[in-house]
Amino acid sequence: MTTHPTTGLAGPALTTTVSVKPLVLSAPQRGEDLHVRVTAPTTGTSLPVVLFAHGFGSDLDGYAPLVDHWASGGFVVIQATHLDSKRLALAADDPRRPQMWRYRVQDMRRILDELTTLEAAVPGLSGRMDHSRVVAAGHSFGGQTAGILVGLRVTDPRTGTAEDLSDARVMASIQLATAGKGGDELTPFAHDNLPWLRDQDFSHITAPGLVVAGDKDDLPLSTRGPAWTTDPYSLSHGDKSLLTVHGGEHFLGGISGYQAAETTDENPDRVALVQQVTLAYLRHITGTDRTDWKNAQTVLAYGHPLGHLESK
């Protein structure tokens, strides 16, 4: 165990990792092959899995500060490049655009279907993954993707219906800087350009979850300000926790990449906080080790300069 000098949080000894990309899965229904990246520890067995969904416009190369940390802490992290990625550059009139939220969920289900194939494609990984322990995680748009896999209902803007698209293979979720409920609180921009946010119902989420929200994350999508991103915590059911990152804006200090240009609140200590709390949660919820999570709950209960952690 090691303790971070600034956050005061404990964590496991970290191990070396290997990352393989692109692993290509055929996906005719989406019109593009699905490109996947797998990052895994070089040692250990019965390794739990994290399915990570990137934010709008990103790709499988994003979020290295989180992916590297989780993998070095004992998790196999799987990322895809979703259809909204700038890398794919869909035309403005592409008929898939209104359904990008749904294609993302299908991407994740495709990965779950092909876990054995992906495992075999990474040198030295075969036989070391625990397919029964899968956590879905995501940032921003990716947080919605992760939420849908554990029960978030999104009203389809084409049909007006809200289907259950959850997947029983996913045991828990981590949603980082993720959209809240829609309705009258959406700005006209969000209502017109992001129709999948118009009506979100968190009440069917009963799986355990961690929500991470920055208290300065004032997105141009809602009239409610930063509190909007806490809805996945306050409106869901089941065992849930909320990490509020003090001073955190949408990229929570820089989780989307090392020295990423889009980060407006670059702060290594904030990133360290998110890294350590999320890894502690992953280890706790998968039954790997609960000590670090209990420590985080104690250290961040009140008065910590970087953040506050609460649970229900």
Commentary on this structure:
With 312 residues, this protein is α/β, with parallel strands linked by helices. The protein contains eight helices and 13 strands. It has helices at residues 64-72, 100-113, 115-121, 141-149, 188-193, 231-234, 268-285, 291-299, and strands at 2-3, 10-11, 17-25, 34-41, 47-53, 76-80, 129-139, 153-154, 172-176, 200-201, 209-214, 240-245, 307-311. The strands form three sheets. The chain has a nine-stranded mixed beta sheet, sandwiched between helices. It has a two-stranded antiparallel sheet with strand order 1-2. Strands 8-10 form a two-stranded antiparallel sheet. Helix 1 links the parallel strand 5 (47-53) and strand 6. Helix 1 (64-72) crosses helix 7 (268-285). The chain is globular, with a radius of gyration of 18 Å. The two termini are 27 Å apart. 51% of the residues are buried.
Gist of the model:
The chain is an alpha/beta fold and 312 residues long. It has 8 helices and 13 strands. The longest helix has 18 residues, at 268-285.
**Average pLDDT number:** 96
H/E element sequence? EEEEEHEHHEHEEHEEHEHHE
The largest pleated sheet is described as:
9 strands, mixed
Distance between the termini: 27 Å
Indicate the structural class.
alpha/beta
Low-confidence stretches: none
Please state the overall shape, judged from the principal axes of the Cα atoms. Answer: globular
Strand content: 15-25%
Helix content: 10-25%
> Which sequence of strands runs across the widest sheet?
3-4-6-5-7-9-11-12-13
**What is the overall number of helices?**
8
E-strand count: 13
Rg? 18 Å
